[in-house]
């Protein structure tokens, strides 16, 4: 059996010590493999294991390491830096001027600090949003703020705790006397400095026209931590107790293995479907619902939400969502060995949608390859991993149709949807 396109899932006890070996479960294709104990992660992604027997798994076969016993987290609950590439760095601002800032990183909801560089400098051109304090849902979910997050911005926008928005150009963030300084203009004064007490500031969304972020052309590693932090590294290594990472933006951090929830290889042997443009999209309205699909992008305001078998929810940043009536056709050009994704009805907490069921069809070169479990999907049944062989195929077709009840209000999420070489 080939190890090509290996997907690895981390299996841990609920209580993890820093010096405990990590237990991994390998999933090659659709057949679960024996549980192994990780002893080393080398810079090229190669994994060395100790049990049930010593073994080396080549880094070229690695797609992801997922801790299966802990839900994939959403955004951090409190202060964090949101980068344009989708990274989320928990911590706080040490200093900031109109060109760059210094960030003090943390992990474990502020209970610890990653080893390595205690201060991470970064240019404002790489920053999307600075979350200053615990976000208030009634404020951050307002229509005006959602427009700020989802539309291009020519100016910096400060969100206040009362829901007001202040536009201008960020001049500085001063730890003393704890204030944000913004260059603003008005009818009477063409240019002035507005000082806003830090306690009134919820977030600062930065100008989107400053810098255009390009995806790296070489392999990178996306690290997801229990506190919702996401760190992208160009180089990683670990010894079973901690993971050491050289960040894509510069700087180095060390994270205890107990904090790591997922490690995904980007620009490797798997192409996530948000990076693949469908050759054709068909959307058929059903009843009052218009069929639509949305591919995840860095900093998508709403992550994918999928129910787990333990009734908790995984929040995922890779993949796409599609409502009833959508047909997607992805080009394969005989370059993919399989399509895989965690597929399920969106776990959005709405009682009406929780009762809805849908049918998902997967066709490879117009041949039906749909697993039986996808013919009647509900939130309550939870999401499941689906793997479909696409060897030598030219096209992958995915359809979302009404289920047995005929309901049309549900949305299907395809988490970690990817094409494996």
TrEMBL record:
It holds the Pfam family NPCBM. InterPro entries: Galactose-bd-like_sf, Glyco_hyd_98_carb-bd, NPCBM_sf. Residues 317-419 form the Glycosyl hydrolase family 98 putative carbohydrate-binding module domain. This is Glycosyl hydrolase family 98 putative carbohydrate-binding module domain-containing protein. It comes from Tuwongella immobilis.
């Amino acid at each position: 059996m080939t190890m090509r396109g290996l997907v690895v899932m981390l299996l841990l006890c609920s209580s993890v010590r820093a010096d405990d070996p990590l237990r991994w479960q390998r999933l090659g294709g659709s057949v679960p493999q024996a549980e192994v104990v990780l002893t080393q992660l080398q810079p090229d992604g190669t994994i060395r294991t100790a049990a049930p027997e010593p073994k080396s798994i080549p880094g070229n076969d690695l797609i992801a390491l997922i801790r299966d016993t802990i839900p994939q987290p959403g955004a951090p609950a409190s202060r964090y830096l949101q980068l344009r590439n989708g990274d989320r760095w928990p911590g706080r601002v040490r200093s900031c001027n109109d060109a760059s800032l210094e960030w003090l990183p943390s992990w474990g909801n502020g209970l610890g600090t990653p080893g390595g560089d205690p201060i991470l400098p970064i240019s404002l051109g790489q920053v999307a949003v600075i979350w200053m304090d615990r976000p208030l849902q009634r404020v951050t979910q307002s229509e005006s703020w959602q427009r700020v997050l989802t539309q291009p911005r020519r100016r910096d926008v400060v969100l206040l705790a009362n829901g007001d928005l202040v536009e201008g150009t960020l001049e500085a963030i001063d730890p003393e006397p704890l204030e944000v300084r913004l260059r603003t203009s008005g009818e009477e004064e063409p240019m002035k400095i507005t000082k806003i007490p830090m306690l009134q500031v919820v977030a600062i969304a930065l100008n989107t026209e400053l810098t255009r972020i390009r995806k790296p052309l070489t392999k990178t590693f996306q690290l997801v931590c229990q506190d919702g932090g996401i760190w992208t590294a160009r180089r990683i290594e670990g010894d079973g107790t901690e993971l050491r990472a050289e960040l894509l933006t510069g700087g180095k951090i060390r994270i205890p293995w107990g904090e790591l929830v997922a490690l995904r290889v980007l620009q490797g042997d798997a192409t996530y479907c948000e990076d693949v443009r469908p050759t054709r999209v068909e959307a058929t309205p059903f009843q009052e619902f218009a069929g639509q699909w949305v591919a995840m992008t860095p900093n998508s305001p709403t992550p994918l939400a999928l129910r787990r078998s333990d009734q908790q929810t995984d929040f995922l940043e890779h993949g796409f969502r599609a409502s009833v009536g959508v047909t997607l056709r992805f080009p394969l050009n005989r370059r993919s060995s399989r399509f895989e994704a965690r597929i399920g009805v969106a776990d959005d907490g709405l009682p009406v949608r929780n009762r809805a069921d849908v049918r998902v069809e997967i066709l490879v070169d117009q041949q039906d390859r749909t697993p039986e479990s996808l013919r009647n999907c509900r939130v309550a049944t939870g999401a499941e991993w689906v793997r479909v062989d696409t060897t030598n195929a030219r096209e992958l077709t995915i359809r979302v149709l009404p289920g047995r009840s005929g309901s049309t209000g549900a949305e299907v999420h395809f988490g970690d949807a990817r094409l494996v070489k």
